[in-house]
Amino acid sequence: MAVLTDPISDFLTRFKNAARAGNEEFTAPYSKIKADIARILQEEGYLWNYEVVTGERTELKAKPKFVDGRPVLTDLKRVSKPGRRHYVGADEVPRVMSGLGISILSTSKGVMSGGSAKRQKLGGELLANIW
Known about the structure:
The protein has 3 helices and 10 strands. With about 130 residues, it is α+β, with helices and mostly antiparallel strands.
C-alpha cells in the first residue's frame, strides 16, 4: 500500500466516496484521530456506527448513514492540510451551511465538533467542514 501524506483526507475521501456510491460500509487504516473523527460523525448522525477491527492490520470499519436511500452526507471539505494548517479561535469557529453542517476541530482537549468547541470556548486546528 502507498504511503499517504494526508491520512485524514484519505479517510474523509473514502467516507464521501462510499456514501455517494451507496456502499453500506467502508474501511480505512486505523489511527486514533480517525477513530475520533468517526465518533464525531456518528454522534452528529453521518455514520450509523463504526468499529475497530484488529487482525493482520488494524482497520476502522464504518457504515455511512442513508435516509430513504440517499446519503445523509452531501459533501465535505478538508480545510487544514499538511502543507497549510488552518487555526481558528473560539469565536472564529465557522457555522457550516447556516448550522446545517458541522465543523471538526482538533483542540487541546481532543478532537471535537465545532459546536462543542464553541460551548467550551476552545479554538484549534480546523480539520474539516461537513454538510
